[in-house]
Design brief:
The chain is mostly helical. It has one domain (about 5-255). It contains eleven helices and two strands; from the N terminus they run H-H-H-H-H-H-H-H-H-H-E-E-H. It has a two-stranded antiparallel sheet. A hairpin with a 2-residue loop joins strand 1 and strand 2. It is globular, with a radius of gyration of 21 Å. About 30% of the residues are buried.
């Protein structure tokens, strides 16, 4: 089964062998279990993250906008409390807002599904939920990875929106850029033959949570261990978030020193 996707994803020999080893570890024959409840929950993540990122773009796009023209407040706070405290307060508030709104919307979409559908199949292996994944990890653990990607994606969207707000000094520019990124995530495409660019595109939060039965088969090797996209993405988001915060602080200090 893995061989069918090896050419489509331009897998290396090492990656192909890794997936074949995972497939060989699956005991056969096995009896399929009902995982409809898990599939219903999984289907809500991408939609919820898309709506959340749009709301974050609208509400946080004005966090730093317009301060170049009326920068009295920024200068007062910077001179009184320091640049790091002044920008750190806004970043903390923005990240907290992104986290809270993400959790609220996730609960709003998950609770009805759990009430009307249930949680049957949490202990089923993931390859019963996504037949082409070949992963033996429990469905409940995989949903936790989905939730982690979702939460970090919300916070990352908030940080990026605030950075763009400071960079463009216009709320429309920041919000418009976030909306353009979301649209590209949903409808854009990079051929898998362009291995590096395509794999990076598949690691964006909305794309990682894509509702499809065929996951990204490409792997990331870290310290001699292969990681799937759901394992690579959280690490990438944390590192990228830290870089964006450092860039935001430096731009703020140069502009209002």
């Amino acid at each position: 089964m893995i061989g069918e996707f090896a050419d489509a994803f331009f897998l290396t020999r090492e990656e192909l062998k890794h997936w074949e080893d995972l497939e060989a570890k699956i005991s056969k024959p096995f009896i399929y279990r009902s995982t409809r409840d898990i599939e219903n929950l999984r289907a809500t993540y991408q939609f919820t993250l898309t709506i959340t990122c749009m709301l974050i773009a609208v509400f946080l796009s004005g966090s730093f906008a317009g301060e170049t023209e009326i920068k009295t407040d920024a200068l007062i706070y910077s001179s009184k409390y320091g640049h790091i405290y002044a920008v750190g307060t806004k970043l903390t508030a923005g990240c907290t807002f992104s986290l809270i709104i993400g959790i609220l919307l996730l609960l709003m979409t998950h609770i009805p599904v759990i009430i009307f559908s249930g949680l049957h199949g949490l202990d089923a292996p993931w390859y019963m939920v996504m037949p082409f994944s070949e992963l033996s990890i429990k469905a409940g653990h995989m949903l936790l990875l989905h939730t982690l990607v979702f939460i970090l994606g919300c916070v990352l969207a908030g940080i990026l929106t605030m950075l763009l707000s400071l960079l463009f000094d216009r709320s429309m520019g920041a919000a418009g850029t976030i909306f353009a990124i979301i649209l590209f995530d949903l409808f854009g495409n990079i051929p898998t033959s362009m291995r590096v660019l395509s794999q990076i595109r598949y690691l964006t939060p909305i794309t990682v949570l894509l509702n499809t039965n065929v996951p990204d088969m490409r792997l990331t090797k870290i310290f001699s261990r292969y990681l799937i996209s759901f394992q690579t993405a959280p690490i990438l988001y944390v590192l990228l978030g830290m870089i964006l915060i450092i860039i935001t602080v430096r731009i703020f200090r140069r502009r209002y020193r």
